[in-house]
Design goal:
Elements lengths: L3 H12 L5 H7 L9 H29 L4 H24 L2 H28 L2
Helix pairs in contact: 1-3, 3-4, 3-5, 4-5
Length: 125
């Protein structure tokens, strides 16, 4: 997720597709361009990250507080991270099926952690 901003900036410079007049003046280009396909694809990918990663991080923090099995927790964290990396690569290269699978796996990890948190809280009542 942290790399999406610099990658978007690189695409803006490469394609001279700037969102601000001052950027056009400094880096060149004809006019402000708000809809270059390569830039917008990265922006949509970044938005998808922002819709999914913060929720996982928040639930992951709560999950750790429930003192889960270490192997189970590591598996969730590694699988989620790899699924998001795969999602980003698949998104940018146009592999729609791989992107959907990676998205589903990451979402599955988030849901699994949420369920385990709920079970732990239910048992502790």
């Amino acid at each position: 997720m942290a790399m999406m901003g610099p990658l978007t900036g690189r695409q803006r410079i490469k394609n001279k597709a700037f969102a601000n007049e001052e950027d056009v003046a400094v880096f060149g280009g004809d006019k402000v361009a708000l809809n270059h396909p390569a830039v917008e694809k990265l922006r949509r990918n970044h938005l998808n990250d922002l819709e999914n990663i913060p929720m996982f991080v928040a639930l992951g923090g709560l999950y750790v507080l429930t003192r889960p099995d270490e192997y189970c927790a590591k598996t969730h964290f590694i699988v989620f991270t790899l699924s998001r990396l795969g999602h980003t690569i698949a998104y940018q290269t146009g592999y729609t099926r791989a992107r959907a699978i990676c998205y589903a796996v990451g979402t599955g990890m988030t849901v699994s952690i949420a369920i385990q948190i709920c079970i732990t809280l239910w048992k502790s009542r």
